[in-house]
UniProtKB/TrEMBL annotation:
Catalyses which reaction(s): 4-CDP-2-C-methyl-D-erythritol + ATP = 4-CDP-2-C-methyl-D-erythritol 2-phosphate + ADP + H(+)
Pathway in which the depicted protein is active: Isoprenoid biosynthesis; isopentenyl diphosphate biosynthesis via DXP pathway; isopentenyl diphosphate from 1-deoxy-D-xylulose 5-phosphate: step 3/6
Protein name, entry field: 4-diphosphocytidyl-2-C-methyl-D-erythritol kinase
The protein's role, per its UniProt record: Catalyzes the phosphorylation of the position 2 hydroxy group of 4-diphosphocytidyl-2C-methyl-D-erythritol.
Active site, UniProt feature: K8, D134
Broad EC category: transferase
Length: 284
């Protein structure tokens, strides 16, 4: 089985409070984009989980893909089932677009089928949130208005513009941003209807550009071309366009020291689209 593992954008990110356990209460809108990693899964019968290639400075046991596979181990139909996973990366790490969470969610979805675990999407999402607050939206596979730490999801239908995605040459530490004493943590909560109509901002932006001059420079450049936004805690920034031509025109002038992509917004995860096709083909 080969599945795409898409990125997401936070169209806005409001921090509405801080919980006693240190986690933050959020409101955000998640939208998938068609920029994806690829994961290949080969079922084995050696009761082993192998992942390749090995990522430098990331022990296998700390890899979210490995952790996701371990989470499903107790639910395997056959205890001898194992898996060989090959991950082909395109999504940048530390960009705020959820690459690691997406890879973990894709692993949960694939192994639920290959290992015949027969868990519901809701059950997979509950398991996934143990590894990361972004994982449930990738498991459920629909654009969503999210609350809580990002795990309380309401399905929404969004416009699907073209996006110019830009990544400055830096890796933003999410922990550093969320522990910064100057981070805004009291944005008033919005009703979902107001959030979708009025949009919002990213409460992390000011802190990120204070600590990361590369992001500050890219944001200043990008906002000269439109309503530039930061996704998650960054480092990626994005602009929405009505058509590919305008997106390509701005991308053509993007400084070459930054990575950039043109991608399309999606209301359904590409993972689910391909997985459902695979299931139908293997039923017949």
């Amino acid at each position: 089985m080969q599945l795409p593992s898409p990125a997401k954008l936070n169209l806005f990110l409001h921090i509405t409070g801080r919980r006693e356990d240190g986690y933050h209460e959020l409101q955000t809108v998640f939208q998938f984009i068609d920029l994806c990693d690829t994961l290949d899964f080969a079922l084995t019968h050696n009761n082993q989980i192998t992942i390749s290639p090995i990522i430098e400075q990331l022990p296998t046991e700390d890899n979210l893909v490995y952790k996701a596979a371990k989470l499903l181990t107790p639910y395997k139909k056959d205890p001898s089932f194992g898996i060989d996973i090959t991950l082909t990366k395109q999504l940048p790490m530390g960009g705020g677009i959820g690459g690691g969470s997406s890879n973990a969610a894709t692993t949960l979805l694939a192994l639920n089928v290959l290992w015949e675990c027969h868990l519901s999407l809701e059950e997979l999402a509950i398991l996934g949130v143990k590894l990361g607050a972004d994982i449930p939206v990738f498991v459920m596979g629909f654009s969503a208005f999210a609350e809580g730490v990002g795990e309380k999801l309401q399905k929404v239908e969004l416009d699907t513009p073209y996006f110019l995605l830009v990544k400055p040459n830096c890796h933003v530490s999410t922990g550093q941003i969320f522990t910064d004493k100057y981070l805004t943590r009291d944005t008033p909560p919005l009703r979902i209807s107001h959030a979708l109509k009025l949009g919002g901002h990213n409460d992390c932006l000011d802190v990120v550009i204070k600590h990361y001059p590369e992001v500050s420079e890219a944001y200043s450049w990008l906002k000269d071309h439109g309503d530039a936004k930061l996704t998650g805690t960054g480092a990626c920034l994005f602009l929405a366009f009505d058509n590919m031509h305008d997106a390509e025109r701005v991308r053509s002038s993007t400084p070459t020291k930054w990575q950039s992509w043109i991608c399309r917004g999606c209301n359904t995860s590409p993972t689910h689209d391909v997985l459902n096709q695979w299931i139908e083909q293997n039923r017949s």
